[in-house]
Amino acid sequence: EIGMGLTGFGVFFLFFGMILFFDKALLAIGNVLFVAGLSFVIGVERTFRFFFQKHKMKATGFFLGGVLIVLIGWPLIGMILEIYGFFLLFRGFFPVVVGFIRRVPVLGYLLNLPGISSLVDKVGESNNMV
Length: 130
Known about the structure:
The protein is mostly helical.
């Protein structure tokens, strides 16, 4: 429960920091809370194994490098690197998330609209590119 709360607050602070024109302090707090929450949810050892798998080193470098750059004080560049690394790291979960959202009544209808459906299908593909 603590891990989910920390992760939720981390996502909130990251989102709020981006809305407020990439506020350094909010983004730094969001990054720290997100990584700490992830560690609480799945455990420190499993978090370390997740981030430092051999085939995910590029993605981990972008994600953690982006976190470091945000903490140093360059939030825009850091968030670009971090978002790219996040998508590389968690792209294996996207098909599951897309499948779940398609079963939600209102959101599923929106995802099946003609223009959005092809984009969501591309995001939901489970091919490995790293």
